[in-house]
Design brief:
By secondary structure, the chain is α+β, with helices and mostly antiparallel strands. It contains 2 helices and 6 strands.
Length: 80
Amino acid sequence: MTCMWQEIKGEPYYRFQTDEPKIAAKLKRRKHFEQCSWGLNCPHWIFVSRYTRPSKARKALGILTGRPLKKDSEEDVYFS
């Protein structure tokens, strides 16, 4: 599963978390994504990126995964 959320409401920084090695490899190749965390004993990567609008961050998540997005309205997290 890959998910995305805004770090602080109103700020342009978004976190992308995945447990899929293919998605992590894509994010590592992109220059606008910076890896900020990873799992030592499990496949787990978190990247941070900057977007001017939430709609652009959602679009990037959809392009990365190639799957439809879903929203957890309680946590304000998008996942695919």
